[in-house]
Write a structure and sequence with these properties.
- The protein is of the alpha+beta class.
- The chain folds into 2 domains: about 180 residues, Ribosomal Protein S5, domain 2 (2-Layer Sandwich); about 130 residues, Alpha-Beta Plaits, CATH 3.30.70.890.
- It has 10 helices and 13 strands.
- A hairpin with an 8-residue loop joins strand 2 and strand 3.
- Helix 1 crosses helix 2 and helix 2 runs antiparallel to helix 3.
- The longest helix has 20 residues.
- The N and C termini lie close together (about 5 Å).
Length: about 325
Amino acid sequence: MTVTAYAPASTGNVSLGYDILGLALAPVSGELLGDRVSVIEETSVFELTNTGRFAHKLPEDPKENIVYDCFVGFKAELAELGIDVRPVKMQLEKNLPIGSGLGSSASSIVAALAALNEFYGKPLNDDKLLRLMGKLEGQISGSIHYDNVAPCYLGGLQLMVESEQCISSSLPVFDEWYWTICYSGASVSTAAARKILPQEFSIKTTIEFGRQLALFVDALHKGDRVLAASVMTDVIAEPYRKSLLTNFDNARAYAESEGSLAFGISGSGPTVFAVSDSAETAEKIKLWLEQNYIQNENGFAHVCKIDTHGTKVSEDV
């Protein structure tokens, strides 16, 4: 029995929620924007095959791949439950570019662990699985954070709680909003994007950050789209990170001139996103970004809605 898990791309921060907000993305075209991982069968030695558009960016040695780390981490978790896990044959379909700001590592991690958990009969519940996902994501970024893995696994727009009781809380969303995302083709590592930020922020900035987040969450629950959009401004990361993104200011200016409700950096970048309340506006912005923001053949743009389903698992007997 082969088990395959698809984990969607995600946007961390969503401008006003640094390390606290994240949402899953689904292109309106129906295309898949995320990684797929399959667990094919048990073997004598761990095996991993890489396919997909960005497979050539992955290390050749399977044991240097995050999917192998997922297997090792999963095996250790089950060992604590008294369950022995043999080596397996796996396949990673790498559809998300590394260092894109679209939760590429989170997508691989979530898909791998979801597939492994299903293959072995779901020995880990959602909470334990999500905490393991965050732990493995932390190995790459340097610190445990859930703003990509939580929406990637659970879907929707997630507010990171990170308490002993739960990791995240699902927030209401506006179905009328379109999310145009554009990856330039460049690469920005999460570690580098974090390093460029100051170690401390002023009281004024932290108060503004708290005010925006509180108003945004309140507006979502009230269904107030105007108020929600009005506070979607990044006072923490964007002022520093935009220097890493070529043509960012021009992209923002164009999106705003076309009536976008908000514009920002997806995660650590270089992917950017624009929020619109009409498909026509979203498509106009997508076309401009394709012509003016994409730098090479690796870049792409999509008009998306929020993926409310999250990770999907299927079996092929």
